[in-house]
Write a structure and sequence with these properties.
By secondary structure, the chain is of the alpha+beta class. The protein contains eleven helices and twelve strands. Strands 1, 2, 3, 4, 5, 6, 7 and 12 form an eight-stranded mixed β-sheet that branches. The structure holds alpha-D-galactopyranose. Alpha-D-galactopyranose binds next to helix 5. The site of alpha-D-galactopyranose has 10 residues, from helix 5.
């Protein structure tokens, strides 16, 4: 895993190769893994993510010709994205440019003019893997623009600006978790976020006896596929039929009493959400007390509900969870679940640090045997949120 400073040096070199001079600013923002609290953010619930040591990073300078144009080049994309600041900033092609475009538009809406820029983007967050590469890109852009314009946004406002960019420019009606953790992550801490009040609490995760393993199924997920928006609508339907503003206001008892007022599907979606909100609060408590067996059990229950009630898992994610569960606590696995939006992407497993290598090998072998796909497996400590590396 590349250290942030090494990565910054790499990006600076790449910038110089492309633009022929060193960058004036460098900013970075991390991807995330969610420990628990899945599909709860847009239901005003709790989430418990952490930032990971994978980053979206941008190096930039003013254009030599002084034009009011932002030119975005990426080490991962061949197409160049440009933003002509003399015109209204609207979504266009290439698609990847729409995340920064939305953020630029957000700054403009706040009356902050970024001015022309030459930008080089590099990202180590695996794309389409449910590790929030898009939120990292948005928050990275916002952090770069803070450096460039000499403004410091309130981190909550910054996260909301980035979420709006994703809604309006990428067409994904995401919740607030990903942008919040990318902006507000703390080294060695999880972030317990109350998505209703937007109050955050950092929860220390420093016990050296445990580690978090991220298992990428290498099955790509695509959130704009409509399934995500459909889940949101079903939750809204359930809340409406129960006469409440959001599922946060519903207890298990209330849901049972109101079961006949909604479709069977909406009922199951709500059952997941209500259970998951409770599990997230309990898991945060478990982390505070280093009660890893309890946290692991809650993660397992979360996966089962996402698979059966919320129906956002897929055979490959289920395969990883089954393999991890077969290893069990005796073999060093406390719990394992899918993480992020679902339909592919990653699982997260809470494991004994002493068994990390053995577990990694076992999951890799068994997953390959079952699916024919090679998984990518790595562990990450909780990383810090967005940062300006050169100003
Ligand atoms: C995606 C969204 C988040 C959240 C998760 C599911 O990552 O961007 O806002 O809803 O799915 O928990």
């Amino acid at each position: 895993m590349q250290k942030l400073q090494d990565l910054a040096a790499h990006v600076a070199t790449e910038f110089e190769k492309v633009y022929g001079r060193p960058p004036r600013w460098i900013a970075a923002a991390p991807g995330r893994v969610n420990i628990i609290g899945e599909h709860t953010d847009y239901n005003d619930g709790f989430v418990l993510p952490m930032a990971i040591e994978f980053y979206s990073m941008m190096a930039a300078d003013r254009p030599v010709d002084g034009r009011e144009v932002i030119t975005l080049r990426s080490t991962l994309e061949t197409e160049v994205a440009t933003i002509d600041l003399s015109r209204p900033v609207v979504p266009t092609t290439p698609k990847w440019g729409n995340y920064p475009r939305g953020v630029v538009a957000g700054f403009q809406a706040w009356g902050i003019q970024p001015g022309g820029l030459d930008v080089l983007l590099h990202s180590t967050v695996p794309l389409g893997s449910g590790l929030s590469s898009s939120a990292a890109l948005e928050v990275c852009t916002a952090t770069l623009l803070e450096a460039v314009t000499g403004t410091t946004l309130d981190p909550v406002e910054k996260a909301l600006l980035c979420q709006k960019a994703e809604h309006d420019y990428a067409g994904v009606p995401c919740g607030i978790m990903d942008q919040f953790i990318s902006a507000l992550g703390r080294e060695d801490h999880l972030l317990l976020l109350d998505c209703r009040t937007r109050k955050t609490e950092i929860v220390p995760m420093q016990d050296p006896s445990v580690a978090l393993l991220i298992i990428n199924t290498n099955v790509k997920h695509e959130l704009s596929g409509g399934e995500y928006a459909e889940r949101r609508t079903q939750c809204e339907e359930a809340a409406r039929n129960l006469g409440v503003a959001s599922l946060r206001d519903v207890t298990a008892g209330l849901l049972e009493a109101g079961k006949s007022k909604m479709s069977e599907t909406a009922y199951r979606r709500a059952r997941h959400v209500i259970g998951e909100i409770a599990r997230t609060v309990q898991a945060a408590q478990g982390v505070r007390h280093s009660d890893w067996p309890t946290v692991g059990r809650l993660m397992a229950a979360s996966h089962a509900a996402l698979r059966d009630d919320y129906e956002v898992s897929c055979p490959e994610l289920d395969a990883v969870v089954e393999i991890a569960e077969a290893i069990g606590e005796k073999g060093g696995v406390y719990g394992c679940r899918m993480t992020g939006g679902g339909f592919g992407g990653c699982c997260v497993a809470l494991v004994k640090a002493s068994s990390l290598d053995a577990i990694t090998k076992k999951i890799a072998t068994d997953y390959k045997a079952r699916t024919g796909i090679a998984a990518t497996i790595f562990s990450s400590r909780p990383a810090a949120g967005a940062t300006i590396l050169k100003r």
